[in-house]
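REQUEST FORM: STRUCTURE PREDICTION
Request ID: SP-0412
Submitted by: Lab K.M.
Chain count: 1
Length (residues): 258
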Amino acid sequence: APVGYSRFFNSNDAMKLLMREKELGNISCNCKNKRLIVKTGFREKRVGDFEQEIIKYVKDKIMWQPDDYKLAIMNSNKKCKCLNKPFDIEISGLSEKYPKGNINFKLTIVQSTQKYSVNIACRITVCTQVVIANSTINRKSRFNETNCFIEKRDITNFNYIPCTRLSDVCNKTASRTVSPGTIIHEKIIAKTPDIERDEQVQVIVNNGRVKISMSALAREAGCCGDKIWVENEMTHKLLKVKIVEPGRVVLMQGEETL
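STATUS: Completed
RESULT:
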């Protein structure tokens, strides 16, 4: 019978018992006018019984500092049934490096070829040092030690990964206007262009087995992967190119005329 359940003894069971008579020894059943019930021995384990293993698993997986977060197991009374014999446990399912709020993963009890799984529900409360705007920072203005400061805040329900050091934001520009008291995160920091406007770049043209290189001036700023316009220094023709690395671009298809 499955672990934790019972069923009636049937003819197939009688056949298996007869075939294993030498292995099991003489077994006699003297039960007239009654149906036999088969039960599997089992034991119940609670999620809370594995609290230390769960805490260690989470600690090894996440990147938060030990003093910056608190872990609470929300379903510690949830039970799982397994066979009444030794077992190992496996915990899996937590892939996020900076989890916050409610998280779920899985605990599996392994007994030889048998596996019994139970879901684990936890809540991680995070209170850590973050960079805060000290005053209004206009769009395209630079962050510095004057308009930003460090403060410890609860970011459990914060949707982004915040900046935790002033060095992460100093001399970088704001992508939008930032109000005083705002937690600084990567979404409000403008990307530093890999190519600036009017910067000289090397244009690579692939034509079959032939590769041509020429100089041009960038007419737009952009980062790797962006498409920008450049001006051929010889013909002054505008070309559409894609940035592959700082100072190097490749000609887009359809721009064969240089």
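NOTES: Helices lie at 11-19, 21-24, 51-61.
Reviewed by: T.R.
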